[in-house]
Design a protein that fits this description.
The complex is a heterotrimer. By secondary structure, chain A is mainly beta. Helices cover about 10% and strands about 45% of the residues of chain A. Helices cover about 35% and strands about 20% of the residues of chain C. In chain C, the strands form two sheets. Chain C has a ten-stranded mixed β-sheet with strand order 3-2-4-7-1-8-12-11-9-10, sandwiched between helices. A two-stranded antiparallel ribbon of chain C has the order 5-6. The radius of gyration of chain C is 19 Å and the shape is globular. Classes of the chains: A mainly beta, B alpha/beta, C alpha/beta.
Chain lengths: ~130, ~375, ~375
């Protein structure tokens, strides 16, 4: 499904800059950002927090049956990345095959095209990850 | 080292490079792979063009993503607060959109928005150096504190054409600021001189998929005329000669033209070696001269002088006299070197290359 | 709370049902359930329906109203319930609460999904809505991919192997071969699974539930009125539900489903039973790894032992615990919204002794386990011969 341009635009600070939030009350970092801390709920003091883009592989798979819009990239490695600051996110690991990946391998953030809505449509940019040598 | 005194422009030398960054994609295709498909002799091509392989962008890379990676590297070296950037200019002939600037994508991705200006430029292979000149003017006039000038391309070669062997992808970014003590300038841009004419050596209409070039016309009346005139103009303006420069970077559509231009200008070809990347990565178009300069900055020592002359079809050349400062040592290793990108490679066959470059009709 | 019983059940054949559309399927299943309950439609006083994505798959929202209309049940209240693949189980829970609370006396609850009218890409996109659209699906995730993440962690943390996962699919096909309603009635081998095409490594085609059309319906009345309709009423002795994070990456562990643990603990407590009392389990095997994890989270095996247990045959028909006698989602098929109700239909047949060649001996108590997405919703029911 093509993401609407308004949703893409709203997510730019997160997808370009890994800008999340942090609950100062319980000292938990959140990415994607949350406005309500699940631990503290309304007692939680939420502030902006920028993540470094460094993390490690928590789990991974190689997608050979891609969803719509990802046909050209398949097969690709998709992973759950554990950021060094705590939260985990779902993102592709570029320039590798699943035989190159181990759980625990360090990764760093890169800037790539995530989706493109056809030759006349919008390009949706954002973060992916690359194995650190 | 320099021999004569350098005369200055009207006013003091006021701008410098506060940070620089490069990016070259990981994938490559060899001349042999392409030659195989078209029934040509690879050795003849490699000898004739002085190129043995070129870069191929990943399927999810484009001129914007390359520009962001280069700009982020430049910021790592500059160590400045990105909100103090007052302008971002991106020069390319493969902007992802014809309308909607690459520069705003880059500006957002490096955290420079919103109190700043931005725009895209096109001048074939010299759009990157023009972007730098725009920043120089805005910084020198006090209009902005820092400006970012970027050259980036994911250029397309028409299948079966000579340019298919060289059209490649790469980017370099320069953060321009005031120079002088405490400014953080790792190199001063002492002078610039440009030479521009209306010369139809290479063009692409908006709906055309591939560019058209003038064959042998792209040599003497285009490349050589502009490179030589711009360089000589710079020599005159600054009262310098070839002997004053330790490194020379010329625009490099193949591995041969820059060496020929150097000979015509009486420049020893050894001075071009460090900044001549095309043999390994192909012609990165708007990225070419600026990546060559980055490769030089990766090794140059304080007080060494660098001559850069770009060339863009259509046509024009921008020439620069650059002097490295002692700040380079503390900044150089804060981001990846051009060589580290060149060394990190994986080869594709022609079929994967076609898929990556979307040359299949249905794609 | 009044005690609630199931007095009528019915389902359509599951499979690629080209000749029948959305409303045809549910009406057929509904008619069979009413027949089974010896009940006239006029006696029903409410309708609940679980269906995940009729809007995306056949362009139809407002599905409960449509179903009530075409079953000839207007003007009774009709409500659609959605919790991704747990829509059916959730609808059953809503119906149970409606009768149990005294609000309604005869409730028909169905689950239906018509998946083959849409293209493969449309189906994939529709199912993707069960996950986090902006942070999982946007990045190129698929449901096989999300469950593959779980499989890899389970393999790392507990040494589970691909062959052990394959054993789950083999067992489910063996059961499905005895079920005339199942989409796949062929038996397969470990080799069949291991040689099938990789979809999201390490999961292959045969590790994944198929795309299926189908509908299932049950009819609920208060237990005290049940014998009027069916001499073998089946009581719902527990109904429990739990939620967890929508995105798999926000879970504390990928090798267990907290929603299953919480819901099943509540259910065992409500029914005052333990795992030892359960004779038959219909659980949510959208992927082979899901069955392995579920058998552990439901308490039948220790965490990490589910793979070996399957490979050792402990979950086969009339083994230590009969799991997915219908063939599960893998062999019986998975018309998304229908699955949760089908599970109740199968357990009802088992407890009545009507399960033919796949009958579990002396089945008295059964459990249904229905999951939404990658585990953000779990609904558990325990059924008992009344």
């Amino acid at each position: 499904m093509q993401e609407s341009l308004a949703i893409t635009w709203r997510r730019i600070p997160e997808r370009y800059g890994l800008l999340g939030t942090k609950c100062e009350t319980c000292k938990t970092n959140y990415f994607p950002p949350r406005t309500v801390c699940p631990n503290c709920r309304r007692r939680g003091k939420i502030v902006k927090y920028k993540f470094s883009g460094k993390g490690k592989v928590y789990s991974f798979t190689e997608i050979t049956a891609p969803p719509e819009g990802f046909e050209l990239e398949a097969p690709y490695v998709l992973a759950i990345i554990e950021l060094v600051e705590g939260p985990k996110i779902t993102s592709q690991i570029v320039e590798c095959k699943d035989s190159h990946v181990d759980i625990g391998a360090p990764v760093e953030m890169v800037f790539r095209k995530i989706q493109e809505d056809g030759p006349e449509g919008l390009i949706h940019y954002g973060f992916k990850f690359r194995l650190v040598k | 080292m320099r021999a004569g005194r350098r005369s200055r422009d009207n006013g003091d030398i006021v701008v410098g490079i506060v940070g620089y960054g490069a990016y070259v994609p990981k994938y490559r295709i060899k001349v042999e792979e392409i030659a195989k498909v078209w029934g040509e002799e690879p050795d003849r091509i490699k000898k004739g063009l002085g190129v043995h392989e070129k870069t191929v962008p990943d399927i999810d890379e484009d001129s914007a993503t390359l520009a962001v990676e280069a700009a982020r590297n430049a910021l790592l070296r500059a160590g400045i607060d990105p909100t103090e950037i007052g302008a971002v200019f991106v020069g390319s002939e493969s902007h992802p959109y014809a309308v909607k600037p690459t520069a705003t994508i880059v500006a957002e991705a490096i955290g420079a928005t919103p109190n700043m200006t931005a725009a895209d430029l096109e001048f074939a292979c010299k759009a990157g150096t023009v972007s730098i000149q725009c920043c120089m003017g805005m910084v020198a006039s006090g209009m902005i504190k820092y400006g970012v000038g970027i050259g980036t391309d994911t250029s397309q070669g028409r299948p079966g054409d000579a340019l298919e062997y060289t059209a490649s992808a790469g980017a370099a970014a320069y953060i321009i600021g005031k120079n002088g003590n405490g400014s953080g300038a790792l190199a001063d841009i002492e002078a610039t001189f440009s030479y521009t004419t209306d010369t139809p050596d290479f063009w692409r209409k908006p709906l055309a998929e591939f560019p058209t070039h003038g064959g042998r016309f792209t040599g003497a009346p285009a490349y050589f005329k502009h490179i030589i005139n711009a360089t000589q103009g710079l020599f005159e303006k600054t009262g310098t000669t070839a002997a004053d420069y330790d490194y020379v970077v010329f625009h490099q559509p193949n591995g041969k033209f820059p060496l020929e231009a150097a000979k015509k200008l009486g420049i020893p070809v050894e001075k071009l070696k460090q900044g001549l990347l095309t043999p390994m990565i192909g012609n990165t178009y708007s990225g070419a001269s600026v990546l060559g300069l980055a490769a030089v900055l990766d090794v140059a020592k304080a007080n060494e002088q660098i001559l850069v002359t770009s060339f863009g079809s259509g046509a024009g050349s921008d020439s620069f006299a650059i002097r490295v400062t002692d700040v380079i040592e503390e900044k150089r290793n804060k981001a990846r070197s051009v060589q580290s990108y060149i060394d990190n490679k994986e080869y594709l066959d022609y079929g994967m290359y076609v898929k990556h470059r979307r040359k299949l009709k249905s794609l | 709370m009044r005690r609630v019983a199931i007095v009528g059940v019915g389902m359509t054949k599951f499979g690629e049902e080209w000749g029948r559309g959305f409303r045809d399927l549910i009406v057929e299943a509904g008619a069979r359930a009413l027949q089974d309950a010896n009940m006239s439609g006029a006696e029903l006083d409410a309708l609940y329906c679980g269906t995940m994505a009729p809007g995306k798959l056949v362009g139809q929202e407002h599905s409960a109203a449509l179903i009530a209309d075409f079953m000839g049940l207007n003007p009774i209240p009709a409500t659609r319930v959605e919790a991704a693949c747990a829509s059916g189980g959730l609808a059953l829970r809503q119906a149970y609460m409606a009768v149990g609370s005294g609000m309604h006396d005869a409730v028909v609850v169905g689950g239906v999904e018509k998946m083959t009218d849409a293209s493969g890409a449309q189906v994939s996109s529709a199912l993707g809505g069960a996950g986090d659209q902006e942070w999982e699906l946007f990045s190129g995730a698929t449901f096989p991919g999300l469950y593959a993440f779980m499989a890899r962690r389970h393999m790392l943390e507990y040494g589970t192997t691909e062959e052990q996962l394959a054993a789950v699919a083999v067992k489910n096909h063996a059961n499905g071969s005895k079920n005339k309603y199942a989409q796949y009635q062929n038996e397969i081998t470990i080799d069949t699974v291991m040689k099938s095409k990789v979809v999201a490594s390490p999961l292959k085609v045969f590790d994944c539930a198929p795309v299926t059309d189908g509908a299932a319906v049950v009819i609920l009345v208060p237990l005290e009125k049940a014998k009027k309709y069916n001499e073998n009423p089946i009581e719902i002795v527990a109904s429990a539900q739990a939620s967890d994070t929508i995105a798999l990456h926000d879970r504390k562990s990928l090798t267990k489903m907290r929603a299953t643990e919480v819901a099943s603990r509540k259910a065992y407590e409500m029914a005052k039973v333990t795992t030892k009392d359960i004779d038959i389990v219909e659980l949510h095997d959208c992927f082979t790894i899901a069955e392995v994890i579920a058998t552990e989270d439901l308490g039948f095996f220790n965490k990490g032992e589910g793979g070996k247990a399957a490979a050792d045959g402990r979950t086969a028909l009339n083994a230590e615990i009969s799991v997915n006698t219908s063939g599960g989602l893998k062999a019986c098929g998975h018309p998304v919204g229908a699955t949760g109700i089908k599970q109740a239909v199968e357990v009802t047949w088992q407890l009545r002794g009507q399960a033919d060649k796949r009958q579990v001996k002396d089945a008295e108590i059964g459990l249904t386990h229905n999951v939404g997405g990658s585990g953000a919703t779990c609904v558990v029911h325990i059924l008992k011969r009344a």
